[in-house]
Specification:
Mean pLDDT: 91
CATH architecture of the largest domain: 3-Layer(aba) Sandwich
Number of domains: 2
CATH topology of the largest domain: Rossmann fold
Largest sheet: 5 strands, parallel
Number of helices: 6
CATH superfamily of the largest domain: Response regulator
Low-confidence stretches: none
Length: about 180
Amino acid sequence: MNDLKVLIVDDDAITRKLLQKRLSKEGCRTELAKDGVQAVNLIATTSYDVVLTDLMMPGGVDGIGVLEAAKEANFKTEVILITAHGSIDNAIEAMKKGAADYLQKPINMEELLIRLQKIHNLKSLLKNASDLREAMQVTEQASSETIQNLEITVSELENRLEQILSILGNHNVPAEQRIQKALAC
């Protein structure tokens, strides 16, 4: 998961720091936001692979607002919501709006790491598929150019062959001159 860039959004400083410490230990590049407003501002200027956000936060922008901002900024950003027991219905609604997953508090770190690994694997597969598509396009373009060049060469050779046959078929000219003219083509 070395290349995952994760924004951790939670109004609880201890939760933020614990998540940052554990994810950094796993090789994730992390940034922190203390509330939804700060998260939305960061999302507007920085691209993240994953946004890990608390669902319920004070300050006017909750986890749903962070989710919407993340998806609007980059639809490829995966959002995982952290929710308390009482807000499972909200988490399900968030999943309908594009959240990748949700976790209940208290957070099971192993469960979080498994979900992040799945996101990492999916992003790797998508990148590999994109790289293959690009390689195929380059190959197709090169093949197309090669075929076009071969068709031009074949056409030129056919024209030269017709000229040679015409010269060799002209019996009004002595054979030695016909051969010399044919070789000059």
